[in-house]
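A quick aside before the break. I want you to see a complete sequence-to-structure record at least once, exactly as it would be stored in a machine-readable document. Don't worry about memorizing anything.
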Amino acid sequence: MDGNSAVVVGGGIGGLAAAIGLHRIGWQVTVVERASTLEDAGAGISLAANGLRALDELGVGEAVRNAARGQYSGGTRTPRGRWLARMDGSALERAVGTPIMGIPRATLHRLLRDALPAEALLTGAEADSLQQVSPGTVRVDRSGTVLEADLVVAADGIGSPMRSRLFPAHPGPAYSGSTVLRAITEHPVDPGTDFELTWGPGAEFGHIAFPDGRAEWHAVLNLPAGTRFADPLAELRRRFGTWHDPIPALLDATRPTAVLHHDVHELRTPLPSYTAGRTALLGDAAHAMTPNLGQGACQALEDAVTLAAALATAPTVQAALAHYDAERRPRGQAVARAARQAGRMGQQLSHPVAIALRNTAMRLTPSRAATRMILRHHAWVPPRLN
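That is the input. The structure line, written in tokens, reads:
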């Protein structure tokens, strides 16, 4: 390999995972994050087998599992509580070796940070320019600090300025038509199951249970982009207060100031490449997708391990990046398409006839068939880093 230093732009889950992978193969890594503190303010996350396998290769899988709760019970329901499909977490565990795990995002983020040397994290700095020279050079923050590296990893999220500079003709993220409100309950609450989704006309409510007894909930609505509420929790009580238990109880266990609200965007137009020069795009910067399959973070973790493995074995950075693009772009874009389709057939459906047809199909689908559909995305085996 002709180089062994990298700058990772973005200190989210994907950026930190990429830095851990590069650090494990002996590279010098600097993570550049524009926020003054490295912490993920999101609510909760589900990690499927593919994401957990990636974390195992990064050396943090056991710590993540110990901080997470397996999703064995639950499924999908109607607003009145009727089951459309039940989750068989034990069958999934037998098939892929692990159940889906639920964990607070902040906890996952902390565990990833702890796996890196403190000096590898540069916060309060922004990569405001990128010079494609040899070795690659990235200019960091407004004071003119320059970091020289053999590789730049653009993990700066869905609105990625790095992507815009590298692919100026790309239209960027598009609004999905849905907006999401979410929070973690202030105190322990018994939701009855590990994980649930409830689908109403153009709306979804779901929860993830955590090991400490608290739960994350999310509410997704079909609304124009930019819609906001003066009192989000009161608005959710109005919309979901008559839905089945434990939905009202989850809302009642939440502090109003804890509610986060974000519009859901995606990269509807696929990128022509996940690489440009000596830069690799990773995570949402490369393939931001809707959350309907719970695969956004898992795909970023796959990216991180695949990139590190390619750099560990290829003779040059350019050869490693070519391999990374060939491996990751078809899969990442296929999962993004599948997530978009799942949203259209799930939460976004609003016509009563279409909803009735979908609900009937779900009730008639055998559990084994449903498990096979899940395995299409979960049954990924990572390359080895050691």
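Two observations worth writing down. The chain has a mean pLDDT of 91. The chain is about 35% helix and 25% strand. We'll return to this after the break.
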